[in-house]
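Is uridine-5'-diphosphate placement plausible here? Inputs below.
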Amino acid sequence: MRHLITGGAGFIGSHLAEALLARGDEVFILDDLSTGSVENVRHLKAHPRFHYSFDTITNKQLLAELVDESEVVFHLAAAVGVRLIVESPVRTLETNVYGTQLVLDAASKKRKLVFTASTSEVYGKSDKVPFREDADLVLGPTTKGRWSYAASKALDEFLTLSYWKERKQPVIVARLFNTVGPRQTGRYGMVLPNFVHQAIEGSPITVYGTGLQSRCFCDVRDTIQAILRLVATDRSVGEVVNIGSNEEVTIDGLASVVKQRTDSSSPITHIPYDQAYEPGFEDMQRRVPCLEKLKCLTDFQPSTPLTEIVDRVVAYFHSRLPEPIPVSGALSAATAAE
Ligand code: UDP
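Reply from A.M.:
I modeled the complex. Tokens:
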């Protein structure tokens, strides 16, 4: 099979590309490298079934050509990361809403299946834990930047589902809950890479707010498995499905796990939200997915334990550390031995 991944040089997109290539498929990626990176796909570039275009999804002609080549369009291109969203709200709204519309429009001309990646952010401040796909979304006021992300992704969902309802364009919407793993960068505010980086460096591990807020972290391998299973069944078409783990941990708890797994001497410090993000910032207190629908459609449920997830991220960070610089004596000894 042949596939297009928008946002294919991103953290999740690059793992998806790898998984599709590994099972023998052909992969086209389209990524403007705004939050994705060439590094994420460098190891795939020489693969004969991997094709990359570093361009924007607003290049309609290129998008149409790539959609033509593909049977499934995985639409992962989006502005992501709470820090990026708070700092660049215009870009968030434009990329997410306009980009999705272009992808759906191109795909609907050829009736290609579109998988739209949405986010658990859309549940907003809801306290009806665990979050079911048919539950109400509870967003904060438009004056608070964070909610523009949730609103833009909710609009993406409406758009995607409308193409199904009105035009019988096959679509699937998945709400991803805190996907983590190797290659995720802390640059846009994501907590796990930030903590691991801080712990390895020996600098303070910065917990925002009280640290009592909780999340469920899902290994990217599980996320990819769930995505592949969802697109493999016709029963997913027209559906909105949660993808995540249900192992809940507080952010204080996560900081302790990271500190312990890295054997770090870093102190754990607490920073008020208005210093970490912006005055009046609102966070979600608990975020746990209901996974019944995913299980029912795919017979799969993410289950990688948190400690294993953290260990994989730690190993990734270690693999990227520059080689320790040898002291001059050690260097001459090594040279002499050669
Ligand atoms: N967070 C934190 N320290 C950081 C980055 C994030 O304590 O360096 C907190 C953040 O306030 C939130 C949680 O960790 O409560 C998860 O943040 P992330 O941005 O990874 O995901 P999301 O907020 O979308 O769940």
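Short version: The CA atoms of residues 261 and 311 lie 7 Å apart.
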